[in-house]
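Q: Is it fine to ask for two folds in a single conversation?
A: Yes, each is treated on its own. Send the first.
Q: Here.
A: Result:
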Amino acid sequence: MRIFILLSRIPYPLEKGDKLRAFHQIRELSKNNELILCALNPNRKLNKQKAFSAVQPYCRSINFIDLPWYTSLWNMMLAFFSNIPFQSGYFYNHNANKKVKALVDEYKPDHLYCQLLRTAEYVKDINIPKTLDYQDVFSHGVFRRMNRSSFLMKILLKMEYKRLIRYETKVFSVFNNKTIISYPDRALIPHPEREKIEVVPNGVDHDYFTPRDSKKTIDLVFTGNMAYPPNVDAAGFLVNDIMPLVWKKMPDTSIMLAGASPDKRVLALKSDKVTVTGWMDDIRDAYASSRIFIAPMQIGTGLQNKLLEAMSMKTPSITTPLANDALKAKDGEEILIGHTKEELAEKILLLLTDTKIYEKLAVNGHRFVKLNYSWEEATQKLNLLIHNTKKI
Protein backbone atom coordinates (compact mmCIF):
# COMPACT_ATOMS: atom_id res chain seq x y z
CA MET A 1 0.00 0.00 0.00
CA ARG A 2 1.17 3.52 -0.74
CA ILE A 3 0.83 5.72 2.35
CA PHE A 4 1.20 9.50 2.35
CA ILE A 5 2.52 10.58 5.78
CA LEU A 6 1.99 14.20 6.80
CA LEU A 7 3.88 15.50 9.85
CA SER A 8 3.95 18.91 11.52
CA ARG A 9 7.71 18.60 12.04
CA ILE A 10 10.64 16.88 10.36
CA PRO A 11 11.10 13.64 12.36
CA TYR A 12 14.80 14.05 13.11
CA PRO A 13 16.70 14.60 15.38
CA LEU A 14 14.68 12.68 17.96
CA GLU A 15 14.54 15.29 20.74
CA LYS A 16 10.74 15.64 20.83
CA GLY A 17 8.11 13.00 21.52
CA ASP A 18 6.14 13.50 18.29
CA LYS A 19 9.32 13.21 16.21
CA LEU A 20 10.41 10.06 18.03
CA ARG A 21 6.99 8.44 17.48
CA ALA A 22 6.91 9.46 13.81
CA PHE A 23 10.45 8.24 13.07
CA HIS A 24 9.91 4.77 14.50
CA GLN A 25 6.48 4.40 12.92
CA ILE A 26 7.98 5.36 9.55
CA ARG A 27 10.73 2.78 10.01
CA GLU A 28 8.23 0.02 10.85
CA LEU A 29 5.57 0.95 8.27
CA SER A 30 8.20 0.94 5.51
CA LYS A 31 8.57 -2.84 5.93
CA ASN A 32 5.14 -3.46 4.37
CA ASN A 33 4.30 -0.24 2.54
CA GLU A 34 5.59 2.38 0.14
CA LEU A 35 5.88 5.68 2.00
CA ILE A 36 5.61 9.24 0.72
CA LEU A 37 6.82 11.52 3.52
CA CYS A 38 5.74 15.14 3.70
CA ALA A 39 6.98 17.05 6.76
CA LEU A 40 6.37 20.70 7.57
CA ASN A 41 9.38 22.59 8.87
CA PRO A 42 8.99 25.63 11.13
CA ASN A 43 12.64 25.35 12.28
CA ARG A 44 15.00 27.38 10.08
CA LYS A 45 18.10 26.12 11.94
CA LEU A 46 17.41 22.43 11.38
CA ASN A 47 20.02 20.42 9.48
CA LYS A 48 17.70 19.18 6.75
CA GLN A 49 20.38 17.16 4.98
CA LYS A 50 21.08 15.15 8.13
CA ALA A 51 17.36 14.61 8.66
CA PHE A 52 16.93 13.58 5.02
CA SER A 53 19.69 10.98 5.38
CA ALA A 54 18.07 9.58 8.54
CA VAL A 55 14.68 8.87 6.90
CA GLN A 56 15.86 8.16 3.34
CA PRO A 57 16.16 4.35 3.80
CA TYR A 58 12.45 4.13 4.60
CA CYS A 59 10.73 6.42 2.09
CA ARG A 60 10.17 6.46 -1.65
CA SER A 61 9.80 10.23 -1.61
CA ILE A 62 10.81 12.78 1.05
CA ASN A 63 9.41 16.30 1.00
CA PHE A 64 10.25 18.99 3.56
CA ILE A 65 8.12 22.14 3.35
CA ASP A 66 9.53 25.19 5.13
CA LEU A 67 7.14 27.39 7.12
CA PRO A 68 8.54 30.95 7.31
CA TRP A 69 8.14 32.47 10.77
CA TYR A 70 6.41 35.60 9.49
CA THR A 71 3.69 33.59 7.72
CA SER A 72 3.18 31.49 10.86
CA LEU A 73 2.56 34.63 12.92
CA TRP A 74 0.16 35.94 10.29
CA ASN A 75 -1.69 32.62 10.18
CA MET A 76 -2.04 32.62 13.97
CA MET A 77 -3.78 35.98 13.62
CA LEU A 78 -6.07 34.50 10.96
CA ALA A 79 -6.74 31.55 13.27
CA PHE A 80 -8.00 34.00 15.89
CA PHE A 81 -10.79 35.12 13.56
CA SER A 82 -11.51 31.69 12.06
CA ASN A 83 -11.90 30.14 15.54
CA ILE A 84 -9.43 27.27 14.97
CA PRO A 85 -6.69 26.54 17.55
CA PHE A 86 -3.72 28.90 17.45
CA GLN A 87 -1.32 25.99 17.02
CA SER A 88 -3.26 24.80 13.98
CA GLY A 89 -2.89 28.29 12.58
CA TYR A 90 0.82 28.32 13.40
CA PHE A 91 1.44 25.16 11.37
CA TYR A 92 -0.91 26.03 8.50
CA ASN A 93 0.39 27.85 5.43
CA HIS A 94 -1.46 28.54 2.17
CA ASN A 95 1.56 27.80 -0.04
CA ALA A 96 2.37 24.69 1.97
CA ASN A 97 -1.22 23.56 1.48
CA LYS A 98 -0.87 23.86 -2.29
CA LYS A 99 2.34 21.79 -2.16
CA VAL A 100 0.66 19.09 -0.05
CA LYS A 101 -2.27 18.90 -2.50
CA ALA A 102 0.16 18.74 -5.46
CA LEU A 103 2.09 15.88 -3.86
CA VAL A 104 -1.11 13.96 -3.18
CA ASP A 105 -2.17 14.46 -6.82
CA GLU A 106 1.26 13.35 -8.04
CA TYR A 107 1.65 10.20 -5.96
CA LYS A 108 -2.03 9.18 -5.69
CA PRO A 109 -1.64 7.42 -2.32
CA ASP A 110 -4.02 4.75 -1.07
CA HIS A 111 -4.09 6.26 2.41
CA LEU A 112 -3.21 9.47 4.26
CA TYR A 113 -1.65 9.19 7.72
CA CYS A 114 -1.54 12.51 9.60
CA GLN A 115 0.18 13.10 12.90
CA LEU A 116 -1.38 15.55 15.39
CA LEU A 117 -4.29 17.96 15.06
CA ARG A 118 -1.89 20.49 13.54
CA THR A 119 -2.00 18.71 10.17
CA ALA A 120 -5.77 18.19 9.91
CA GLU A 121 -6.44 21.47 8.06
CA TYR A 122 -4.30 20.27 5.14
CA VAL A 123 -6.25 17.08 4.43
CA LYS A 124 -9.79 17.64 5.72
CA ASP A 125 -11.19 18.07 2.18
CA ILE A 126 -9.14 15.35 0.45
CA ASN A 127 -11.34 12.40 -0.47
CA ILE A 128 -8.87 9.60 0.32
CA PRO A 129 -9.08 7.19 3.28
CA LYS A 130 -7.20 8.76 6.14
CA THR A 131 -6.02 8.26 9.69
CA LEU A 132 -5.35 10.92 12.32
CA ASP A 133 -2.95 10.28 15.17
CA TYR A 134 -4.18 12.51 17.99
CA GLN A 135 -1.15 11.20 19.92
CA ASP A 136 -1.89 13.34 22.98
CA VAL A 137 -4.97 15.23 24.14
CA PHE A 138 -3.85 18.77 23.40
CA SER A 139 -6.89 20.35 25.06
CA HIS A 140 -6.26 18.65 28.40
CA GLY A 141 -2.56 19.44 28.26
CA VAL A 142 -3.42 23.12 27.87
CA PHE A 143 -6.01 22.88 30.65
CA ARG A 144 -3.40 21.52 33.10
CA ARG A 145 -1.05 24.39 32.24
CA MET A 146 -3.64 27.11 32.96
CA ASN A 147 -3.43 27.00 36.75
CA ARG A 148 0.37 27.31 36.66
CA SER A 149 0.52 30.28 34.29
CA SER A 150 0.61 34.04 34.64
CA PHE A 151 -2.62 36.06 34.39
CA LEU A 152 -2.11 37.04 30.74
CA MET A 153 -0.95 33.56 29.70
CA LYS A 154 -3.92 32.05 31.53
CA ILE A 155 -6.30 34.12 29.36
CA LEU A 156 -4.60 32.93 26.15
CA LEU A 157 -4.49 29.31 27.30
CA LYS A 158 -8.18 29.38 28.25
CA MET A 159 -9.01 30.63 24.77
CA GLU A 160 -6.83 27.93 23.19
CA TYR A 161 -8.37 25.28 25.44
CA LYS A 162 -11.90 26.09 24.26
CA ARG A 163 -10.79 26.09 20.62
CA LEU A 164 -9.01 22.75 21.02
CA ILE A 165 -12.05 21.16 22.65
CA ARG A 166 -14.17 22.14 19.66
CA TYR A 167 -11.52 21.17 17.13
CA GLU A 168 -10.76 17.76 18.65
CA THR A 169 -14.46 16.98 18.29
CA LYS A 170 -14.81 18.52 14.82
CA VAL A 171 -11.99 16.57 13.13
CA PHE A 172 -13.21 13.26 14.57
CA SER A 173 -15.69 12.75 11.72
CA VAL A 174 -13.23 13.85 9.03
CA PHE A 175 -10.96 10.82 9.46
CA ASN A 176 -11.76 7.16 8.87
CA ASN A 177 -9.46 6.10 11.71
CA LYS A 178 -8.23 7.84 14.82
CA THR A 179 -5.33 6.73 17.03
CA ILE A 180 -3.95 7.88 20.37
CA ILE A 181 -1.08 6.96 22.64
CA SER A 182 -2.86 5.59 25.72
CA TYR A 183 -6.24 4.66 27.21
CA PRO A 184 -6.19 7.50 29.80
CA ASP A 185 -5.65 9.95 26.94
CA ARG A 186 -8.49 8.43 24.93
CA ALA A 187 -10.85 8.89 27.87
CA LEU A 188 -10.14 12.64 27.74
CA ILE A 189 -11.08 13.16 24.08
CA PRO A 190 -14.31 15.24 24.09
CA HIS A 191 -16.32 13.06 21.71
CA PRO A 192 -19.21 10.67 22.52
CA GLU A 193 -17.68 7.96 20.29
CA ARG A 194 -14.14 8.22 21.62
CA GLU A 195 -14.05 4.43 22.25
CA LYS A 196 -13.64 4.09 18.47
CA ILE A 197 -10.19 5.66 18.77
CA GLU A 198 -7.55 2.94 18.58
CA VAL A 199 -4.82 3.01 21.21
CA VAL A 200 -1.42 2.70 19.52
CA PRO A 201 1.24 3.07 22.22
CA ASN A 202 4.83 4.09 21.80
CA GLY A 203 7.62 1.59 21.98
CA VAL A 204 11.28 1.71 22.81
CA ASP A 205 14.27 0.64 20.75
CA HIS A 206 15.61 -2.08 23.04
CA ASP A 207 18.59 -2.75 20.77
CA TYR A 208 19.66 0.88 21.26
CA PHE A 209 18.66 1.47 24.88
CA THR A 210 20.47 -1.51 26.40
CA PRO A 211 21.89 -1.75 29.93
CA ARG A 212 25.49 -0.58 30.37
CA ASP A 213 27.98 -1.41 33.05
CA SER A 214 29.04 2.22 33.58
CA LYS A 215 30.37 4.18 36.52
CA LYS A 216 27.58 6.07 38.28
CA THR A 217 28.69 9.68 38.64
CA ILE A 218 25.24 11.26 39.12
CA ASP A 219 22.58 10.31 41.65
CA LEU A 220 19.45 11.49 39.82
CA VAL A 221 18.67 12.25 36.20
CA PHE A 222 15.65 13.80 34.50
CA THR A 223 15.66 13.93 30.69
CA GLY A 224 13.53 15.44 27.96
CA ASN A 225 13.12 18.49 25.76
CA MET A 226 13.82 21.18 28.34
CA ALA A 227 11.83 23.83 26.49
CA TYR A 228 8.62 21.79 26.68
CA PRO A 229 6.39 23.34 29.40
CA PRO A 230 5.59 20.08 31.29
CA ASN A 231 9.32 19.28 31.45
CA VAL A 232 10.21 22.81 32.53
CA ASP A 233 7.57 22.54 35.26
CA ALA A 234 8.83 19.10 36.37
CA ALA A 235 12.45 20.27 36.50
CA GLY A 236 11.48 23.19 38.75
CA PHE A 237 9.37 20.95 40.96
CA LEU A 238 12.27 18.51 41.31
CA VAL A 239 14.94 21.05 42.20
CA ASN A 240 12.90 23.57 44.19
CA ASP A 241 10.40 21.37 46.02
CA ILE A 242 11.56 17.75 46.17
CA MET A 243 15.32 18.03 46.50
CA PRO A 244 15.48 20.34 49.56
CA LEU A 245 13.81 17.46 51.45
CA VAL A 246 16.40 15.02 50.12
CA TRP A 247 19.33 17.37 50.77
CA LYS A 248 18.33 17.66 54.43
CA LYS A 249 19.28 14.00 54.87
CA MET A 250 21.74 13.47 52.00
CA PRO A 251 23.24 16.89 51.21
CA ASP A 252 25.64 15.65 48.53
CA THR A 253 22.96 14.19 46.26
CA SER A 254 23.57 15.31 42.66
CA ILE A 255 21.12 15.89 39.81
CA MET A 256 21.42 16.04 36.04
CA LEU A 257 18.80 17.77 33.88
CA ALA A 258 19.57 16.45 30.41
CA GLY A 259 17.89 17.51 27.19
CA ALA A 260 17.74 19.93 24.29
CA SER A 261 16.95 23.65 24.36
CA PRO A 262 16.83 24.31 28.11
CA ASP A 263 14.44 27.11 28.97
CA LYS A 264 15.83 30.04 31.00
CA ARG A 265 13.90 28.71 34.01
CA VAL A 266 15.75 25.40 33.68
CA LEU A 267 19.12 27.12 33.23
CA ALA A 268 18.40 29.08 36.41
CA LEU A 269 18.34 25.78 38.35
CA LYS A 270 22.08 25.20 37.82
CA SER A 271 24.18 24.90 40.95
CA ASP A 272 27.06 22.90 42.38
CA LYS A 273 24.55 20.04 42.87
CA VAL A 274 22.50 20.50 39.67
CA THR A 275 23.93 20.04 36.18
CA VAL A 276 22.03 21.28 33.12
CA THR A 277 23.54 19.63 30.04
CA GLY A 278 21.58 21.01 27.10
CA TRP A 279 21.63 18.88 23.96
CA MET A 280 23.44 15.54 24.32
CA ASP A 281 24.67 13.65 21.26
CA ASP A 282 23.85 10.38 23.02
CA ILE A 283 21.15 10.55 25.70
CA ARG A 284 22.10 7.02 26.78
CA ASP A 285 25.13 8.55 28.50
CA ALA A 286 22.75 10.39 30.85
CA TYR A 287 20.87 7.23 31.82
CA ALA A 288 24.01 5.10 32.11
CA SER A 289 25.88 7.54 34.37
CA SER A 290 22.96 8.01 36.79
CA ARG A 291 21.83 5.84 39.68
CA ILE A 292 18.15 6.79 39.46
CA PHE A 293 15.81 8.21 36.85
CA ILE A 294 12.98 10.45 38.00
CA ALA A 295 10.07 11.95 36.03
CA PRO A 296 8.13 14.11 38.54
CA MET A 297 5.47 15.14 36.01
CA GLN A 298 2.75 17.47 37.28
CA ILE A 299 1.22 18.54 33.95
CA GLY A 300 1.12 17.12 30.43
CA THR A 301 -0.44 14.08 28.80
CA GLY A 302 0.66 10.97 26.95
CA LEU A 303 3.17 8.20 27.53
CA GLN A 304 6.58 9.38 28.73
CA ASN A 305 9.24 8.04 26.34
CA LYS A 306 11.89 8.98 28.86
CA LEU A 307 10.55 6.40 31.31
CA LEU A 308 10.62 3.67 28.67
CA GLU A 309 14.21 4.50 27.76
CA ALA A 310 15.47 4.65 31.34
CA MET A 311 13.79 1.38 32.32
CA SER A 312 15.06 -0.31 29.15
CA MET A 313 18.58 0.59 30.32
CA LYS A 314 17.89 -0.91 33.78
CA THR A 315 17.86 2.45 35.51
CA PRO A 316 15.49 2.27 38.52
CA SER A 317 12.76 4.84 38.00
CA ILE A 318 10.47 7.08 40.03
CA THR A 319 7.47 8.98 38.73
CA THR A 320 4.04 10.40 39.57
CA PRO A 321 0.58 8.86 39.04
CA LEU A 322 0.05 11.28 36.15
CA ALA A 323 2.88 9.69 34.14
CA ASN A 324 2.23 6.13 35.26
CA ASP A 325 -1.46 6.23 34.27
CA ALA A 326 -0.35 5.60 30.68
CA LEU A 327 2.68 3.42 31.51
CA LYS A 328 0.83 0.98 33.83
CA ALA A 329 3.91 -0.22 35.73
CA LYS A 330 3.41 -1.79 39.18
CA ASP A 331 4.25 0.51 42.07
CA GLY A 332 6.86 -1.01 44.35
CA GLU A 333 7.68 -3.78 41.89
CA GLU A 334 8.60 -2.19 38.55
CA ILE A 335 8.63 1.49 39.46
CA LEU A 336 8.17 3.77 42.47
CA ILE A 337 5.32 6.29 42.49
CA GLY A 338 5.02 9.41 44.62
CA HIS A 339 1.98 11.67 44.82
CA THR A 340 3.55 14.58 46.71
CA LYS A 341 6.96 16.18 47.06
CA GLU A 342 7.33 14.41 50.41
CA GLU A 343 6.55 11.00 48.93
CA LEU A 344 8.87 11.55 45.97
CA ALA A 345 11.71 12.62 48.26
CA GLU A 346 11.08 9.51 50.34
CA LYS A 347 11.32 7.28 47.22
CA ILE A 348 14.60 8.90 46.21
CA LEU A 349 16.12 8.33 49.65
CA LEU A 350 14.89 4.74 49.62
CA LEU A 351 16.60 3.92 46.32
CA LEU A 352 19.81 5.67 47.36
CA THR A 353 20.07 3.63 50.55
CA ASP A 354 18.39 0.25 49.94
CA THR A 355 20.40 -1.86 47.47
CA LYS A 356 17.91 -4.75 47.55
CA ILE A 357 14.96 -2.60 46.39
CA TYR A 358 17.26 -0.80 43.94
CA GLU A 359 18.22 -4.07 42.23
CA LYS A 360 14.63 -5.35 42.24
CA LEU A 361 13.35 -2.23 40.45
CA ALA A 362 16.21 -2.29 37.94
CA VAL A 363 15.49 -5.91 36.93
CA ASN A 364 11.68 -5.77 37.08
CA GLY A 365 11.42 -2.40 35.31
CA HIS A 366 13.65 -3.64 32.51
CA ARG A 367 11.59 -6.81 32.08
CA PHE A 368 8.34 -4.81 32.14
CA VAL A 369 9.23 -2.54 29.22
CA LYS A 370 10.77 -5.40 27.24
CA LEU A 371 7.52 -7.34 27.50
CA ASN A 372 5.09 -4.47 26.95
CA TYR A 373 6.67 -1.78 24.78
CA SER A 374 7.92 -2.60 21.30
CA TRP A 375 7.85 -0.30 18.26
CA GLU A 376 7.38 -3.32 16.03
CA GLU A 377 4.28 -4.59 17.84
CA ALA A 378 2.75 -1.13 18.36
CA THR A 379 3.19 -0.10 14.72
CA GLN A 380 1.86 -3.42 13.45
CA LYS A 381 -1.42 -2.47 15.10
CA LEU A 382 -1.34 0.82 13.15
CA ASN A 383 -0.44 -1.00 9.93
CA LEU A 384 -3.42 -3.36 10.27
CA LEU A 385 -5.73 -0.44 11.06
CA ILE A 386 -4.66 1.37 7.89
CA HIS A 387 -4.94 -1.73 5.71
CA ASN A 388 -8.39 -2.58 7.08
CA THR A 389 -9.79 0.94 6.85
CA LYS A 390 -13.56 1.13 6.78
CA LYS A 391 -15.46 3.87 4.96
CA ILE A 392 -16.89 6.71 7.06
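Q: Second one now.
A: Result:
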Amino acid sequence: MPDFPVVFHFKVAFGNSADEQDNRFQEVAGLSTEVTVEEYREGGVNHHSHRLPTGAKFNNLVLKRGYLSGTAVADWCKQAIENFEFKPTDVDVSLLDENHQPLAHWSFTGAWPVKWSISDLKAQENALAIESLELAYHSFRRVET
Protein backbone atom coordinates (compact mmCIF):
# COMPACT_ATOMS: atom_id res chain seq x y z
CA MET A 1 0.00 0.00 0.00
CA PRO A 2 1.51 3.37 -0.97
CA ASP A 3 2.25 6.07 1.55
CA PHE A 4 0.28 9.17 0.73
CA PRO A 5 1.77 12.58 1.52
CA VAL A 6 0.48 14.66 4.39
CA VAL A 7 -0.70 18.19 3.66
CA PHE A 8 0.78 19.83 6.76
CA HIS A 9 4.44 19.47 5.76
CA PHE A 10 5.22 22.10 3.12
CA LYS A 11 7.53 25.00 2.40
CA VAL A 12 6.97 28.37 0.73
CA ALA A 13 9.88 30.39 -0.69
CA PHE A 14 9.77 33.93 -2.07
CA GLY A 15 12.30 34.91 -4.72
CA ASN A 16 12.67 38.40 -3.21
CA SER A 17 13.38 37.28 0.38
CA ALA A 18 16.07 35.20 2.06
CA ASP A 19 14.47 35.76 5.50
CA GLU A 20 13.35 32.38 6.91
CA GLN A 21 10.40 34.07 8.67
CA ASP A 22 8.97 34.99 5.27
CA ASN A 23 8.71 31.30 4.40
CA ARG A 24 6.62 30.24 7.42
CA PHE A 25 3.00 29.89 6.40
CA GLN A 26 0.31 27.82 8.05
CA GLU A 27 -1.88 27.49 4.99
CA VAL A 28 -1.55 27.56 1.20
CA ALA A 29 -4.65 27.59 -1.01
CA GLY A 30 -5.28 28.13 -4.72
CA LEU A 31 -3.06 25.38 -6.12
CA SER A 32 -5.31 24.82 -9.10
CA THR A 33 -5.72 25.60 -12.74
CA GLU A 34 -8.30 24.81 -15.36
CA VAL A 35 -8.60 24.88 -19.11
CA THR A 36 -11.10 27.42 -20.36
CA VAL A 37 -13.55 26.19 -22.95
CA GLU A 38 -15.42 27.93 -25.76
CA GLU A 39 -18.61 26.40 -27.08
CA TYR A 40 -19.14 26.46 -30.84
CA ARG A 41 -22.50 25.61 -32.38
CA GLU A 42 -22.16 24.17 -35.84
CA GLY A 43 -24.93 24.97 -38.29
CA GLY A 44 -27.18 21.98 -38.91
CA VAL A 45 -25.95 20.10 -35.82
CA ASN A 46 -28.65 20.70 -33.24
CA HIS A 47 -28.10 17.89 -30.74
CA HIS A 48 -24.74 19.13 -29.37
CA SER A 49 -22.20 21.91 -29.50
CA HIS A 50 -18.46 21.58 -29.96
CA ARG A 51 -16.38 22.44 -26.90
CA LEU A 52 -12.93 23.77 -27.76
CA PRO A 53 -10.03 24.55 -25.39
CA THR A 54 -9.05 28.24 -25.43
CA GLY A 55 -6.38 28.58 -22.74
CA ALA A 56 -5.52 28.16 -19.09
CA LYS A 57 -7.10 29.96 -16.14
CA PHE A 58 -5.26 30.29 -12.82
CA ASN A 59 -6.70 30.91 -9.37
CA ASN A 60 -4.98 33.34 -7.03
CA LEU A 61 -2.49 31.85 -4.57
CA VAL A 62 -3.60 32.46 -0.97
CA LEU A 63 -1.05 32.27 1.86
CA LYS A 64 -1.89 32.51 5.57
CA ARG A 65 0.42 32.93 8.55
CA GLY A 66 0.72 34.59 11.92
CA TYR A 67 0.89 38.36 11.50
CA LEU A 68 4.44 39.62 10.89
CA SER A 69 5.60 43.15 10.14
CA GLY A 70 8.97 44.42 9.06
CA THR A 71 9.88 41.42 6.90
CA ALA A 72 10.83 41.65 3.23
CA VAL A 73 7.53 40.09 2.10
CA ALA A 74 5.48 42.35 4.39
CA ASP A 75 7.30 45.41 2.99
CA TRP A 76 6.88 44.13 -0.59
CA CYS A 77 3.15 43.71 -0.01
CA LYS A 78 2.86 47.14 1.62
CA GLN A 79 4.62 48.84 -1.32
CA ALA A 80 2.23 47.21 -3.80
CA ILE A 81 -1.00 47.89 -1.93
CA GLU A 82 -0.29 51.28 -0.36
CA ASN A 83 2.01 52.84 -2.99
CA PHE A 84 0.88 50.91 -6.09
CA GLU A 85 4.52 49.92 -6.77
CA PHE A 86 4.48 46.37 -8.08
CA LYS A 87 7.66 44.29 -8.20
CA PRO A 88 6.66 40.78 -9.33
CA THR A 89 8.64 37.92 -7.84
CA ASP A 90 8.66 34.15 -8.13
CA VAL A 91 7.12 32.02 -5.38
CA ASP A 92 7.84 28.33 -4.89
CA VAL A 93 5.66 25.91 -2.92
CA SER A 94 6.91 22.44 -2.05
CA LEU A 95 5.11 19.51 -0.47
CA LEU A 96 7.70 17.73 1.69
CA ASP A 97 8.23 14.16 2.84
CA GLU A 98 9.28 12.99 6.32
CA ASN A 99 12.95 13.75 5.45
CA HIS A 100 12.06 17.34 4.42
CA GLN A 101 12.66 16.52 0.75
CA PRO A 102 10.22 17.75 -1.93
CA LEU A 103 7.58 15.27 -3.07
CA ALA A 104 5.92 17.84 -5.31
CA HIS A 105 6.99 21.36 -6.23
CA TRP A 106 5.05 24.21 -7.84
CA SER A 107 6.67 27.35 -9.20
CA PHE A 108 4.63 30.55 -9.57
CA THR A 109 6.16 33.07 -11.96
CA GLY A 110 5.76 36.84 -11.64
CA ALA A 111 3.61 36.91 -8.50
CA TRP A 112 2.35 40.16 -6.99
CA PRO A 113 -0.05 40.92 -4.12
CA VAL A 114 -3.67 41.67 -4.95
CA LYS A 115 -5.18 41.38 -1.47
CA TRP A 116 -4.02 41.51 2.14
CA SER A 117 -6.18 40.94 5.19
CA ILE A 118 -5.87 40.18 8.89
CA SER A 119 -8.18 38.06 11.02
CA ASP A 120 -10.92 39.82 12.96
CA LEU A 121 -9.81 41.37 16.23
CA LYS A 122 -12.00 40.03 19.03
CA ALA A 123 -11.56 40.86 22.71
CA GLN A 124 -13.47 37.73 23.75
CA GLU A 125 -11.14 35.28 21.93
CA ASN A 126 -7.61 34.17 22.76
CA ALA A 127 -6.33 33.58 19.22
CA LEU A 128 -3.38 34.56 17.08
CA ALA A 129 -3.67 37.39 14.56
CA ILE A 130 -3.55 35.67 11.16
CA GLU A 131 -2.66 37.59 8.02
CA SER A 132 -3.78 36.44 4.62
CA LEU A 133 -1.87 37.34 1.47
CA GLU A 134 -3.48 36.76 -1.92
CA LEU A 135 -1.22 36.73 -4.96
CA ALA A 136 -1.93 36.91 -8.67
CA TYR A 137 0.76 35.59 -11.01
CA HIS A 138 1.59 35.19 -14.68
CA SER A 139 1.77 31.39 -14.72
CA PHE A 140 2.55 28.37 -12.67
CA ARG A 141 3.89 24.93 -13.40
CA ARG A 142 4.52 21.75 -11.51
CA VAL A 143 8.23 21.08 -11.38
CA GLU A 144 9.21 17.43 -11.47
CA THR A 145 11.23 16.43 -8.39
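Q: Anything structural to flag on that second result?
A: Two points. The CA atoms of residues 14 and 25 lie 12 Å apart. The chain has one domain: 10-32+59-143.
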